Amino acid sequence: MQRLKNGSRYMALAGGIIVQIFVGIIYIWSIFQEPVIEYFNWTHSGAALTFSVMLPMNVLGVTAGGILNDRKGARFVLHTGGILMTAGLLLSSLIPKGQPWLLYIFYAGMGGFGGGLAYNATVSCAQKWWLDRKGLAGGIIVCAYGMSTVVFTPVVNMLLGENGVGVKNTFRILAAVFAVIVLTVGWFVVNPDEEYMDNCVKDSKEWIGKKQYKPGDVLRSGKYYMVLICLLCLTPAYLMLNPMIKSLGELRGLSEEIAVISVMITGLASALGRLTAAWLSDKIGCKRVLLMLYTITFVSILLLWNIHGNMFIVLIALITYAYGGCAGVTPVLATDFFGTKYMSSNFGLVMISVMISGIAYPTLGTAVSPAGIPAAQVFLIPAVLCVAGFVTLHFLYGKD
Asked: What are the φ/ψ torsions at residue 368 (nearest 5 degrees)?
């Protein structure tokens, strides 16, 4: 019986990895944007709004997925998300040329929400099976999500290229592949039973006697809002600079080719941060990991203010590593502070920080960067918020 349980947890982890690589497709809108503008004869601002709609819908999907996961199970949530995302991609391929705004509903709305459901299902399921190594398991899953950009960018670029199949057929191909993968691999993503969870809790001193917060309890807890603040204070450095990394690199003395490579390096740095920060949380605890990420971000963003040449790439990679690390420890924080019983719902609530930061910081970065050239505030605001994060972290963990 125990052998069967162990086999199931490896299958759930492997299934989650595969699903996450495909779910991350929704985040490569930047590759779609120019071909979509050309095909629909659309404006840049109209096309760019697609991603702005998709992000909050994705986080709403993560939050709703948590509630459904605790009630219906990971497989149900994953398949529901898979159907929504497949339908969103397929319907996007059927949009008439005169109505590109329908992408807000199909690609951003249905695709984003469905992707959020699938994200929660796989992350929460992995953590439930691997309570003894919850950081590592969650880190592997979110790392796979981050690697989706690296895996699918060249594929989608080829499909949309001069000798490719075009926008509509690319949507159809992705819909078909996604449906097959999620609806088959998704059968292995199933939550452990209560007996397994209870035995894991009994076997670990970490969970004995620990309060199990219901979602309502979380929202009434001061710790929840401190967790949000800690996460919100860690992400502005990357999110404010992200739209300008290539252009800023060129301003700092990099060639166009090297500046493009620096953008690609950020994808790998983010994936590495997601994996290693989560793994380290199992070894040294979330508090020390967050202190490390704050320190990396604080030092790097201040040095980046006036750095030139190849050191620019190193500092951007470090900032992106810390941003990825934040994503890696987010599910661990939710479990550490609010328990295991309702971890799916509570993880969804903590993910609200992603929606707030993803909307607020890029907008703020653009507002203080005339003509795309970052002003001093782009470096000072993240540094100040790092200090605020340090202070909040102290109160969150008290005297521990």
From this structure: -100, 15
CATH code of the domain containing 387: 1.20.1250.20
Q: Would the pLDDT of 3 be above 50? A: no
Q: Which two tokens stand for residue 52?
A: 């702005």
Same domain, 237 and 383: yes
Maximum alpha-carbon separation in the chain: 63
The range of the structural domain enclosing residue 98 comes to 2-194
CA distance 62 to 175: 20
Residue labelled with tokens 């790998």? 268
Residue 136, helix vs strand vs coil: helix
Q: What is the mean pLDDT of residues 216-242?
A: 91
Domain count, the chain: 2
Nearest CA-CA partner of 140 in 265, 26, 14: 14
Last residue of a domain, one of 194, 220, 235: 194
Span of 13-17, 90-94, 162-166, 250-254 with lowest mean pLDDT? 250-254
The pLDDT of residue 25 is: 78
Give alpha helix (H) positions in 41-133: 44-72, 74-92, 103, 112-129
Compute how many other C-beta atoms are within 10 angstroms of the C-beta atom of residue 3: 7
Share of the chain above pLDDT 70, in %: 94
Instruction: Tell me the Ramachandran region of residue 339: left when phi exceeds 0, alpha when psi lies from -120 to 50, beta otherwise.
Output: left
**Contact in structure between 5 and 196 (CB atoms under 8 Å):** yes
Tokens of 139: 């880190």
For residues 175 and 236, state if they share a domain.
Answer: no
